[in-house]
């Protein structure tokens, strides 16, 4: 499994990457939702857009932070789904009360991964 980590906090990206590695997954990380579309386009994840890069793995899932400095994860998720992205997108958030969780599902998130991360 190959995961795209999108989070503006470097320490959290590195911690999530190490946890995924221990679980047998590989990952790549970027620090801004704005770069997410460009990377997904380059890997052929946006329908009708040929892959512009012969290198790099396709992603099996996207772990997308909800609150970032330059973009909101909910807006990024909506945009990617409107473009036809079929990669499952998981919301990474500390705001995981029932109301927020329902609103993330309405946006189109495949699931929610609560922060702080834990391997339990």
Structure description:
This protein has helices at residues 10-22, 33-42, 73-83, 98-107, and strands at 2-6, 26-30, 61-65, 89-93, 111-114. With 120 residues, the protein is α/β, with parallel strands linked by helices. The protein has one domain (2-114): Rossmann fold (3-Layer(aba) Sandwich), CATH 3.40.50. Strands 2-1-3-4-5 form a 5-stranded parallel beta sheet, with helices on both faces. The longest helix has 13 residues, at 10-22. It is globular and about 40 Å long.
CATH architecture: 3-Layer(aba) Sandwich
Fourth-tier CATH superfamily name: Response regulator
Q: What percentage of the residues does DSSP assign to strands (E)?
A: 15-25%
How would the global form be characterised?
globular
Instruction: List low-pLDDT spans.
Output: none
List keywords for this structure.
4 helices, 5 strands, alpha/beta, globular, 120 residues, five-stranded parallel beta sheet, Rossmann fold
Topology at a glance:
Elements: E1 2-6, H1 10-22, E2 26-30, H2 33-42, E3 61-65, H3 73-83, E4 89-93, H4 98-107, E5 111-114
Summarize this entry quickly.
By secondary structure, the protein is an alpha/beta fold.
């Amino acid at each position: 499994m190959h995961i795209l980590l999108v989070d503006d906090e470097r320490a959290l990206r590195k911690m999530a990457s190490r946890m995924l590695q221990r679980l047998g997954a590989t990952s790549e990380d970027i620090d801004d939702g704005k770069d997410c579309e460009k990377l997904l386009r380059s890997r052929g994840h946006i329908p009708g857009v040929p892959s512009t890069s012969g290198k790099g793995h396709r992603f099996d899932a996207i772990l997308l932070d909800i609150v970032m400095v330059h973009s909101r994860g909910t807006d990024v998720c909506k945009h990617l789904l409107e473009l036809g992205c079929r990669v499952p997108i998981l919301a990474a958030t500390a705001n995981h009360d029932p109301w927020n969780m329902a609103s993330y599902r309405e946006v189109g998130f495949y699931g929610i991964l609560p922060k702080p991360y834990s391997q339990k």
